[in-house]
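job 3f2a | input accepted
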Amino acid sequence: MTTLYVDADACPVKSEVERVASRLEIPVVLVCNGGIRPSRNPLVSLRIVAEGPDVADKWIAEHCGPGDVVVTADIPLADRCLKAGSHVLQHDGQILTLSNIGGRLATRDLMQDIRAADPFHQGGGRAFSQADRSRFLQALDRLARLALKHR
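job 3f2a | predicted structure (151 res):
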């Protein structure tokens, strides 16, 4: 059975995930360290994991598999999920695949090195936009339907 796993801490698209999941009747697991109100939707469950670095990521990576969809902005988690056979989608609607994750990991590592060498270096992240939200909805619908078809 296809499941949507959401790396829910600081995820800006939880309501969009719930909307697509409800329409396609796919269960959702929101994984976080706490602080998120449980949904009344019977398809949505909340998994609260212990505090600590990457605990939610480890839980998702251990539970996702072929035919699942994972929503995350965490590139190392995305890599693990892709290797487990899951589809991966970022909050801005960008689909990550085995063919594009290597470049993302390299860029992430390079930026981490730059920040370590220059603590005053400011990241250039852009604000989350309505266009990102729309792109996410379209991509999630497409990935979820693909996952259901191949399950």
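job 3f2a | The mean pLDDT is 89.
job 3f2a | closed
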